[in-house]
Design a protein that fits this description.
mainly alpha; binds zinc ion; Helix Hairpins; 4-stranded mixed β-sheet; about 75% helix; 5 helices; rod-shaped; about 250 residues
């Protein structure tokens, strides 16, 4: 295999790795945003629970003050009982007292309900607080991991880009130009010979062309159909990295 083809295979693998790194680096802000959204959901759940608790407490305070007023009114009616002049007035007063006491009883019953409700609301607030704290703790770790990942990716990206530039600098200019053109057009620019066809476009080679490729020489071959650099994999020339695989093995 021509040395340039061997080098461009490496370049191709490095470029594949760069693509993977870029796609991962680009996905990180989205992942962070998803995490922030989770926290926002937990926060708003806590706020709802707190609002419900506050409403319940406000109703309770209002009712307590109403009960006080009602009791004062009943007390006042009772204190008037010595001033009544006849049976009719006395009966009216008793009715008033009975009515007031019934109102107090009814309100006190509602107050009991509100007290129970208050316990439920308080438990709901506590639960939401705990859920938020747990989410925040989990997310702090996740966020740190994402940030570390981003830093590692950027560092690797720099290394790989430098390595790629270094390898490209050793390739003959016209071969490199052709490689770039095909890579832009087809993504992968180096293809391995697969039996008697191009490993990428699958078009069969002319027998004479096939013979040329299989004969040891120092020429660079291009697929006559797709234009990719074409090489025959031999035991000795088999690259360590498969043309399209890439990244993981490289790193
Ligand atoms: Zn081809």
């Amino acid at each position: 295999m021509h040395k340039d083809v061997e080098t461009l295979l490496e370049v191709q693998a490095l470029e594949q790795r760069l693509k993977e790194l870029d796609s991962e680096i680009n996905s990180l802000p989205r992942r962070l945003a998803a995490i922030e959204a989770q926290i926002a959901t937990q926060k708003s759940a806590l706020e709802s629970a707190q609002a419900a608790q506050a409403a319940s407490q406000a109703e309770r305070r209002k009712l307590e003050s109403q009960i006080q007023d009602l009791k004062a009114k009943v007390e006042k009616s009772r204190s008037h009982s010595s001033e009544v002049k006849n049976n009719q007035e006395y009966k009216a007063l008793l009715d008033e007292i009975a009515f007031g006491e019934a109102e107090v009883a009814k309100s006190e019953e509602r107050l009991l309900q509100l007290m129970e409700d208050g316990e439920v609301r308080a438990a709901a607030v506590k639960e939401a607080e705990q859920a938020l704290a747990a989410a925040q703790a989990a997310i702090a770790g996740e966020k740190r991991a994402i940030e570390e990942r981003a830093a590692a990716d950027r560092a690797e990206r720099q290394r790989v880009a430098e390595q790629r530039a270094g390898r490209r600098a050793t390739v003959a200019e016209d071969t490199l130009r052709r490689y770039d053109r095909v890579a832009r057009l087809r993504g992968q620019a180096v293809a391995v010979l697969d039996q008697n066809a191009c490993g990428c476009c699958r078009v069969r080679l002319r027998p004479q062309f096939l013979q040329e490729i299989l004969t040891p020489s120092d020429r660079v071959f291009f697929c006559e159909s797709c234009g990719r650099l074409l090489y025959a994999a031999t035991a000795a020339a088999e690259p360590e990295v498969a043309p399209v695989a890439g990244a993981a093995q490289l790193a």
